[in-house]
Specification:
45% of the residues lie in helices and 19% in strands. The protein starts with 9 loop residues before the first strand and ends with a helix. It holds the Pfam family Peripla_BP_2. One of its GO terms (biological process) is iron coordination entity transport.
């Protein structure tokens, strides 16, 4: 109830790493959690069938072309060093990044990689939900100031 952001926007949860973006589709822990919370994952099975798996796991390696095709409406970017993460800066300098709907509409949230991508269980799920509530409140405040 307190997560008031538009959950219909196709959302892309992804880790930013040296190797690029590692997406978390619906069959990952974060992907499943977001689905349970009512979010629409941009990476449904139809879109993920032909993408290359990262280290043979459920995570998907996204290059600029694939990212452009997916064109998420919202992104949760999991970074080790927050908004100053050098891997994130590299992505932000890519012209494809600037053309994404999520970027153009200021719906990119940089979140802690440890909490979102490395931790599992009820405690991390509750922390992620709390962060989503905080992001919702911040967006609501920003929208009221416009």
């Amino acid at each position: 109830k307190e997560i008031t952001m538009d959950k219909k926007q196709p959302v892309l949860p992804a880790v930013v790493a040296k190797s690029g973006l590692l997406a978390h589709p619906e069959n990952t822990y974060v992907g499943q959690l977001l689905k349970e919370l009512g979010f629409n994952n941009a990476l449904n099975k139809t879109k993920t069938d032909n993408l290359s798996k990262y280290l043979k796991g459920p995570y998907l390696q996204l290059n600029a072309e694939v990212l452009s095709d997916i064109n998420p409406g919202r992104m949760f970017i999991m970074a080790d060093k927050g908004e100053n993460d050098p891997n994130l800066k590299k992505q932000e300098n890519n012209p494809v990044w600037q053309d994404l709907d999520a970027v153009k509409n200021n719906r990119v949230s940089v979140v802690d990689r440890n909490t979102w991508a490395r931790a599992r269980g009820i405690i991390s799920s509750e922390e992620i939900a709390k962060q989503l509530v905080d992001i919702s409140k911040e967006e609501k405040k920003d929208n009221q100031q416009k």
